[in-house]
Amino acid sequence: MSQHPLPENLHRDTLALHTAVDRSQYGENSEALYLTSGYVQPSAEASARRFAGDEEGFTYGRSGNPTVSSFEMRLSAMEGAEAALATSSGMSAVMLMLFSLLKSGDHVVYSQSMFGSTLKLIGSEFARFGVESTMVSQTDLAAWKAAIRPNTKLLFAETPTNPLTEVCDIQALADMAHNAAALLAVDNCFATPVLQRPMEMGADIVTHSGTKYLDGQGRVMAGALCASEAMITGKCLPVMKNGGMVLSPFNAWVVLKGLETLDIRMRAQSARAQEMAMWLEQHPMVSRVYYPGLTSHPQHALSMKQMSHLGGAVLSFDVKANDPQTARSRAFHVLDSLRVLSLCTNLGDTKSLLTHPASTSHCKLSEDQRQAAGIGQGLIRFAVGLEHVGDMQSDVLRGLDTL
């Protein structure tokens, strides 16, 4: 049962509800979940054409699935990209991008403030295969420019960063990359296409951990790349087919449905995060709050311009202490005092999640690397959910007021 093509120029709120593959003959309103690893072919000739890429059609689960395609179509529409490719996790999306675009002798410039696993993947794992890399300050455009070499193929930034919410100038980095005949990739996990669409500012590739806000309720692992049709089909898809970083249909279906409420969730959680950040900034046992929505944030003006005048749903704060050991002890006390909010390393859930980055997400970095990234022992990351603000404040006060 074919559905009518969607009209052009629909708002992303509408695209988040209606973009998908055609309905089946049964006319389902909620997109179907296709749990199959293989597909019966109409004929040997059609099968040959499909495997050769000369005819559209599904052949094997590692090469495509209707439910996964619906997720890819919906996300690319929301990001304003020509195409998307779904993966089994956010880090597998990053790995797929690097494998698809780089070879031995190529060079990557990337932010030292990126997620810890991304730092390790580029700086350690890909270094084993001859890929060179340079880490730079997230916000220092001069450092980005100075790091570019003749063999630089990729600039990679995450904005806002995890966990210090540093914001980079996407348009400036895109211009810089293109002037050097390189590509710019942006991790859009924290902002999502609701708040920020990097490709409209010149980025060539957008990466996502669908595990976070795209799902929104902490149920499944997922990732995705958004880029041009030529890059997705010509460079990334062949690596995907051979490497198998494929997203399962069930997980794709869960995240597909999560996209339908992404806009209202992001706006509601951002509003709560703004209120919590302003409140924490006034507490005597908090030395600093990191949140783009605060006027005290170094990139506040830029973030408001890039992120639809909202700061996102993640903030971090430093517990006041005189030395690292005391800071760690006090941060642990605050986290161990929680009774409503969750001590959990994920983010993007409708439930508020707090964590200690130095001992979790960034624990594999050396102390020098942690210090360079600004990850102190007193730092707590707070991914704000949908609880009542008063209840969030009371739960955090349980620890702050007893230090």
Keywords:
alpha/beta; seven-stranded mixed β-sheet; 15 helices; 403 residues; single chain
Q: What can you tell me about this protein's structure?
A:
This protein is of the alpha/beta class and 403 residues long. The chain has 15 helices and 12 strands. The strands form 2 sheets. The protein has a 7-stranded mixed sheet, with helices on both faces. α5 (116-125) links the parallel β2 and β3 (132-136). α1 (12-18) runs antiparallel to α3 and α4 packs parallel to α5 (116-125). The longest helix has 19 residues, at 262-280. It is globular. The model has no long low-confidence stretch (mean pLDDT 95).
Largest sheet: 7 strands, mixed
Give the distance, in angstroms, between the N- and C-terminal Cα atoms: 63 Å
Number of strands: 12
Output the helix-strand order: HHHEHEHEHEHEHEEHHHEHEHEEHEH
**Roughly how much helix do the residues carry, as a percent range?**
25-40%
Average pLDDT: 95
Spans of at least 5 consecutive residues whose pLDDT stays below 50 are none
Tell me the Rg in angstroms.
Answer: 22 Å
Strand content: 5-15%
Helices and strands: which structural class?
A: alpha/beta
